[in-house]
Amino acid sequence: MESERQLQEILWISTGPEQTEALGEALGRTLPAGAVLALDGDLGAGKTTLTRGLGRGLGDYEVSSPTFTLHDLHEGGRLALSHFDAWMEGREKALLEDGGDEWLGGDGVAVIEWAERVVRWLPTPRVEVRLDHRGEEERLLRFQVVGPASEPLAMALQAALLDAVRSAGQAGEPAHPENS
Ligand code: ADP
Ligand code: MG
Q1: What's residue 120's pLDDT?
Q2: Which of 37, 57, 86, 154 sits CB 3.0–4.6 Å from 25 for a disulfide?
Q3: Candidates 11, 40, 49, 114: which one to mutate for ligand 1, based on the most atoms within 8 Å of Cβ?
């Protein structure tokens, strides 16, 4: 749907985990309240690594993989971080019935790993992040804000992304400008 793809995709190449973490940290410093990040990519693509940086930027949180804990909530920093992992089967049920609304809404930042599995329950606007292996230590990260672009949150998300990418360096040129 065209209205789902209004803002420009941002590409970023990471050449090591510390870079991915640094980008996450920059995002954590700049993302507005209410931001939702939907992360997708194979095992080891760097979803948790990005989230670890994000936690540092948001409030010195110690993020670990919630693969087995379902959901972690970090509080006390600039904004709360709600970290959800949809890897295991049946977790969409948890999103629907066991508090997902609280995890995804609100004034904090929500991150969902394996977001594709629960995508139809995720709110917009949101940032979709696709991480792909390009080598042992190289990853291609693609960021796209989806949802109604006229909404202030969508614009703030896009601005935060650009800021973070600039401050973390290594900004990739958007390869497919869809709205230039
Ligand atoms: P996921 O959550 O997507 O399964 P993780 O973040 O847990 O992935 O793991 C990523 C793994 O890949 C880590 O072992 C990390 O050290 C390694 N790695 C190598 N290069 C990178 C990179 N550029 N960005 C992120 N992780 C990287
Ligand atoms: Mg992970």
Answers
A1: 83
A2: 57
A3: 49
Q: Tell me the pTM.
A: 0.89
Atom of ligand 1 nearest to the CA of 113: 2
Query: CA-CA distance, 131 to 71, in Å (whole number)?
Result: 21
Ligand 2 center from residue 150 Cα (angstroms): 32
| Per-residue confidence band for 166, with pLDDT thresholds at 50, 70 and 90 | confident
Is any ligand 1 atom within 6 A of the Cβ of residue 30? no
Q: Which contiguous run of DSSP H or E holds residue 149?
A: none
Q: Is 130 in the pocket of ligand 1 (CB under 6 A)?
A: no
Q: What is the pLDDT of residues 51-65, one digit of tens each?
A: 999 999 999 999 987
Q: What's the CA gap between 129 and 95, in Å, rounded?
A: 20
pLDDT in tens, 88-103: 766 666 666 666 667 7
E strands present in the chain: 10-14, 36-40, 71-74, 81-85, 109-113, 126-133, 139-146
Closest CA to 128 of 166, 171, 158, 85: 158
